[in-house]
Specification:
The complex is a heterodimer of chains A (115) and B (118).
Chain A lengths: L3 E2 L4 E5 L4 E7 L6 E7 L6 E7 L4 E4 L2 E6 L4 E6 L8 E8 L10 E2 L3 E6 L1
Chain B lengths: L3 E4 L2 E4 L5 E7 L5 E8 L3 E10 L2 E4 L6 E7 L2 E6 L8 E8 L12 E3 L3 E5 L1
Parallel strand pairs in B: 2-11
Antiparallel strand pairs in B: 1-3, 3-8, 4-5, 4-9, 5-6, 7-8, 9-10, 9-11
Classes of the chains: A mainly beta (115), B mainly beta (118).
Chain lengths: 115, 118
């Protein structure tokens, strides 16, 4: 029973264009969402996060959108660069329910940005 | 990198042997975590700690135990390694006084420990 779903295992985008990575969740108790980027042979690196009280958070080329009614979030990268090629993980958590707010991860989307 | 060091970084061991992975942090964060990453599964929580000698189970805790006798060290032990425990193991810390609350409270990961059980 996957609570966080990234339905696209891979995505290929041309350099300079927009990359859109999608994530769906099923647990309505989730109130904080994070995106991580992971290069091969390295640990995941925090990218951007959003609280459920917001519907958008922006940091440079990266913007995360949250649609609570649809239980959907997306990460936009504009413009995409070859160095953005990595696996992107969506994660969610809740500060309620006694779970100590542990992160629940999706399976990841591998982004390839072509020069 | 939030001062997280994992050791060993790579290990090959035989089925049935005990294995201990160490996570060391230099910034006295309260919350520490062990995750494993496998193809097709993303990252899954094994155990976590919310203080010295305070630990609890995560999603995939069977076959694993943990200990935290000092704030800076969180040990993950495979009592009797099996081939299904071949994986990449990541330690993580939370920078906040609560595990996750709002912006500014972030989880940082170590560089990983590659374990192969043959």
């Amino acid at each position: 029973d996957q609570q966080v779903k990234q339905n696209s295992p891979s995505l290929s985008v041309q350099e300079g264009r927009i990359s859109i990575l999608n994530c769906d969740y099923t647990n309505s108790m989730f109130d904080y969402f994070l995106w991580y980027k992971k290069y091969p042979a390295e640990g995941p690196t925090f990218l951007i996060s959003i609280s459920s009280i917001k519907d958008k958070n922006e940091d440079g080329r990266f913007t995360v959108f949250l649609n609570k009614s649809a239980k959907h979030l997306s990460l936009h990268i504009v413009p995409s660069q070859p160095g953005d090629s990595a696996v992107y993980f969506c994660a969610a958590t809740s500060n309620y329910g006694g779970s100590q707010g542990n992160l629940i991860f999706g399976k990841g989307t591998k982004l390839s940005v072509k020069p | 990198d939030a001062g997280i060091t994992q050791s060993p970084r790579h290990k090959v061991t035989e089925t049935g042997t005990p294995v201990t992975l160490r996570c060391h942090q230099t910034e006295n964060h309260r919350y520490m975590y062990w995750y494993r990453q496998d193809p097709g599964h993303g990252l899954r929580l094994i155990h976590y700690s919310y203080g010295v000698k305070d630990t609890d189970k995560g999603e995939v805790s069977d076959g694993y135990s943990v200990s935290r006798s000092k704030t800076e060290d969180f040990l993950l032990t495979l009592e009797s390694a099996t081939s299904s425990q071949t994986s990449v193991y990541f330690c993580a810390i939370s920078t906040g006084i609560r595990p996750y609350s709002s912006s500014g409270n972030t989880i940082y990961f170590g560089e990983g420990s590659w374990l192969t059980v043959v």
